[in-house]
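Section 5.1 Outputs to date
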Amino acid sequence: MGRLARVNFTDIIHNDTFPTKQFNFFAADGTTPLDLSDCTVRIQIRYKSKNGKLVRTAISGDGITWTDQANGQFELGGFIADWQGAGEYWYDVQMTYATSGIIRTYVQGKITVIDDVTSNT
């Protein structure tokens, strides 16, 4: 897996529960699931730019759920998108391999958050 994939989210409503998105990782042949048993995953979400204000870090058990680690599958979501309001946010998916210590970023993209109409107060 040498390429950086781009996955953009659109129209997530501010103050709503972030929809669950499944990520599937494959070996270079594009069909063999990538065994991520040796990995930890971390996703950071930043406001307005890749270097903007950090609004959320997701890790296993807190925003990330492994659905099949040996076959390269996890889900992101289930948390409230109560960040800085409407706008563009940037995120990436970073894997750390425990045995080798190698860190790889495989996915990045934008999340578009739009204003909600109904107040939560």
